[in-house]
């Protein structure tokens, strides 16, 4: 049986020279790779008591939804601004060149609910930090944040130091 790292395609010098792009489409396109990715991420939740899974757009949906389904938990979307139809709360965060804004439905998290956040990749941690702040604004408690991959050189884990963070794969670089 292959290790999950063997399903990730590494593309040198993309999007710019010196960067190694870690492509998850090669994981998703292989039935065994997808199964292993979901199972490995779900295993990071062993022993965690939680009520809701929250996924960040868009690859957090890909991994978070099957985990929520398998564990019989509700799934909540965190989307880019302007994509949700009901009343929302929003949070801005910094990108490498500019800012972005994400939203959640105002009624998606109930006060006191224990929440797991899911995304495919932790780089700088900005998106998932903003998502955690949205959960907390609604009265939820973030009990765990999980990722398939971590680019440790971008120090996102430091930004999320107040949370329990876990990743399946850790790459030392950027």
From TrEMBL:
Recorded coiled-coil stretches: none
Primary residence: cytoplasm
Keyword Magnesium: no
Subcellular location: Cytoplasm
Recorded GO MF terms: adenine binding; adenine phosphoribosyltransferase activity; AMP binding
Enzyme class name: transferase
EC numbers, comma separated: 2.4.2.7
SUPFAM superfamilies cross-referenced by the UniProt entry: PRTase-like
GO CC terms in record: cytoplasm
Keywords carried by this UniProt record: Cytoplasm, Glycosyltransferase, Purine salvage, Transferase
Catalytic activity: AMP + diphosphate = 5-phospho-alpha-D-ribose 1-diphosphate + adenine
Associated pathway: Purine metabolism; AMP biosynthesis via salvage pathway; AMP from adenine: step 1/1
Domain of life from the UniProt record: Bacteria
Domain Phosphoribosyltransferase: 47-165
Family that this chain belongs to: Belongs to the purine/pyrimidine phosphoribosyltransferase family.
Cross-referenced NCBIfam families: apt, PRK02304.1-2, PRK02304.1-3, PRK02304.1-5
Function: Catalyzes a salvage reaction resulting in the formation of AMP, that is energically less costly than de novo synthesis.
Complex and partners: Homodimer.
The name this protein goes by in its record: Adenine phosphoribosyltransferase
Lineage: Bacteria, Bacillati, Bacillota, Clostridia, Lachnospirales
This protein's encoding gene: apt
